[in-house]
Automatic annotation (TrEMBL):
One of its GO terms (molecular function) is endonuclease activity. InterPro entries: Restrct_endonuc_IV_Mrr. This is Restriction endonuclease type IV Mrr domain-containing protein. One of its GO terms (biological process) is DNA restriction-modification system. Residues 25-129 form the Restriction endonuclease type IV Mrr domain. Pfam families: Mrr_cat.
Length: 181
């Protein structure tokens, strides 16, 4: 377990927020993503801004996950991360686009860092419906991390616990509801 510097997290968030162009906002948020996940045991940066063979889809960050030693042992051997820092909440279309990008890989789960949150009143509408659609249609799970959650992290153990809770909710609770209703 490694500790996070709350000063460093806030500094990276401020840089992302202060950037004038969308690409610069995204690049600054990618630095935050690399800071958070780069401190985790068992994760190694595989690539940033990686395109598929046709050049039509890009993954912001990809970590190689050594499940034998990783704090994220419950996730796949590769973890794609999408970074969204927009003034408006991440939409269902953006969630769908990311789910499609993940479905083009051998990964079953992707992480979505969205500083403004998801569309819908309380994450039970719109964008969340796309997350559930990705599970049922593609077999892809999208785990969402928001600004509020990032600001509450003090260690890699906190991040691993947060993601494990989201993973369990998506894999177990949501599937049980889908199967029996």
């Amino acid at each position: 377990m490694s500790k996070f510097s709350t000063i460093r997290i806030k500094e990276l968030l401020e840089k992302s927020d202060a950037a004038k162009l969308p690409d610069l906002k995204g690049a600054a948020l990618e630095k935050l993503g690399c800071y958070l996940f780069g401190k985790m045991k068992g994760l190694n940066l595989y690539g940033k801004n990686k395109f598929n063979a046709s050049g039509s889809r890009e993954l912001d960050i990809i970590y190689k996950n050594d499940r034998r030693t990783s704090e994220l042992h419950f996730l796949d051997g590769f973890i794609p991360i999408e970074c969204k820092n927009t003034a408006k909440k991440t939409t269902s279309e953006q969630v769908n686009w990311f789910a499609n990008k993940v479905s083009d890989t051998t990964c079953r789960y992707g992480l979505l860092l969205t500083l403004s949150g998801l569309t819908g009143k309380d994450e039970t509408e719109a964008a969340k419906s796309e997350i559930m659609r990705a599970v049922s249609k593609f077999g892809i799970g999208i785990l969402v991390i928001t600004r509020i959650e990032i600001l509450q992290l003090s260690s890699t153990r906190d991040l691993a616990n947060l993601l494990e809770q989201k993973y369990l909710a998506l894999c177990l609770e949501e599937k049980v509801e889908l199967e029996f209703y």
